[in-house]
Amino acid sequence: MTTHVKPHHLEASAPAVGPSDPVSSRLVTRIGRTYRFESAHHLPLLPDGHKCKNVHGHNYRMEVVVSGALDTRGFVMDFAEIDTEIMPLIKKVDHRLLNEVEGLENPTAEIIAAWFFRRIKGCESVRVYENDECWAEVKV
After folding, report:
1. Phi, psi (5° rounding) for residue 90?
2. Catalytic residue ranges
3. What's this model's pTM, rounded to 2 decimal places?
4. C-alpha gyration radius of the chain
5. Contact 60/38 with Cβ under 8 angstroms?
6. How far apart are CA 86 and CA 35, in angstroms?
7. Residues 110, 134: contact at Cβ < 8 Å?
8. Helix, strand, or coil here: 30?
9. What is the pLDDT of residues 69-84, one digit of tens each?
10. How many CA atoms within 13 Å lie on the side-chain side of 12?
């Protein structure tokens, strides 16, 4: 009689950390999603002569991080659920003059990041890039 033994690398493995594992209660899982929008703005509180006091535009990139415990599906949040929450916000700022959006009358990168942060459930951080070199971040 031949006994078949599964090679070790093919055996089903238990998760490294399970729901009843004491380590699980201390874990925080973070997920992130990147969004892009194009907008114009001017910074009215700057002194005359500062180039950013004039209307100009940016191809913004925004990174959102959400954190929390895993739900019964194994998600902190489904990326589609994040999109459902964030895309209406993106629509408010995309191809707009940000100064005309309520709460963004002085739309610095810092204020834009905070504006999004306050409106995203479970948000740990929002980082807004005006370009590849310059960003502002708001986080817990």
Report:
1. -60, -40
2. 52, 95, 130
3. 0.81
4. 22
5. yes
6. 9
7. no
8. strand
9. 899 999 999 999 999 9
10. 1
